[in-house]
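Minutes, structural biology subgroup

Action item carried over from last meeting: produce the structure token record for Peptide-binding protein (Streptomyces ficellus). EB confirmed the sequence was re-checked against the source entry. Recorded below for completeness.
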Amino acid sequence: MFNRTSLQAAAALASISLLAGCGLFSGDDADGENKIVVGTTSAPSTLDPAAAWDGSWELYRNVFQTLLSFPTGSATPQPDAAECKFTDTVSKVFECRLKEGLAFSDGGKLDARAVKHSIDRIRTINAKGGPGPLLGSLDKIVTSGDRTVTFHLKEPDATFPYILATPAMSIVPPEKYPADALREDGKLTGSGPYVLNSYQEGAEAELTRNQTYKGFANRKNDAVTIRYFKESEAMVGALRKKEIDATYRGLTAEEVVQLQEKKPENEGLQLVESTGADIRYLVFNAQAPGVSKLAVRQAIAQVVDRDALVAKVYQGTAEPLYSMVPKGIAGHTTAFYDRYGDPDVDKAEKLLDEAGVDGPVALTLWYTTDRYGSGTAAEFAELKRQLEASKLFRVTLQGKPWNEFQAGYQKGEYPAFGRGWFPDFPDPDNFIAPFVGKENVLSTPYVRPEITDQLLPKSRKVSDRGAVTEEFEKAQEILVDDVRLLPLWQGKLYIAASEEIAGGERALDPQTVMQMWELQRKTSW
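Output recorded by EB:
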């Protein structure tokens, strides 16, 4: 998740009804009976926005405000808590004017001081794996009165508005969130569409309307319960039992295929499909034994069969990916295929022989068991099968729950591990910048000055993102040279829901974050 400019229009969402139904959309219910229960396998890693650069954004978008945001259908940041614009000709001074009368849900004043505090503390705390790197271009923040906030940038960055529109830049009250430490009382205070009434870590979040909210969201329900599941099987079971109204994130390919079939158990259900920009990839720690030699990483890249992986594990709900920038995003290439072609064991063996590497190479692949859905285990089992079938590798698999997994890779304990990426917004920078540099979102240093000091800064001066493909094509060639990141596949996003629920086709914003307020219950004819 990272920054940058001129956003392509978000992928259109198509609703695939499994069984046609009839109904009228209910509006805002005065009696408070319009409540929605949503299931997901992606629980927040923290309630403090200063520490999260992950799926926690799902919750943040619904309970916090940002200065700018992405209303459904918008391809560029729009006003949320403020009206903003560049006030100079070189895109280095960005000024925001807050709306009048903004307040936090506890009655505290949301003013310029709160905005400065919220964003300054991200940089001060600089939490490992947190959103600090998003603010790399920011020099200082100056306030004028209660309502004006001015951001001074170190260098031109016409894409800074997109950063401010991410849930990472959620505005928090200074009295509840320390300037130099994370909030640790297990509570949350924001000014967004909903109030977090209660939270059970890894289990459930109860949201109700924020009565003092002043923002762009047109809430079509009165309350939302988010239930967090460790396994997607239990989540789908809960949907079929009508214990939840909709699911988001975590459906396995098998479950999507089953939900598309006309079976009695699917009666009254619908599936909403979005062409996603989410990707899966392997990360190699070049400082770790086993994968420190380039030839080993190249041999893995030469052996992995993405077509087989997608066919066996994802059954048409994903497609092979040969660059970190996925199909549908400006600058997409097939760089890894261009370099390695089809899987070839003989070529892989030659790479190892020429580097003096004796096989089979012992390799441990780490993955998270509860972040990207239960299909992840099958994915890594298939990777193990492919690598060992070549007789060039001896693979051990290690799976851990997200919090433990995250702590491990942040400490540099894993030589090779799997990650998923849901973009901040669809821009090629968003699929390269987060992963490169001494301090990156992977906590695995990858120093490449040509990318970080030349190609990315050059591209960020250009507001027409279609005009920077050359820079990103070059960056992707460098990624292929180093094989520090190995793209595997890009997926599609699905919302499975009861037919009684409307709004699923509008619920995903350009950042693929669920806007809970778009969901509503239908009323019968």
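Discussion: Confidence is low (pLDDT under 50) at residues 1-32.
Next step: EB to file the record with the rest of the batch.
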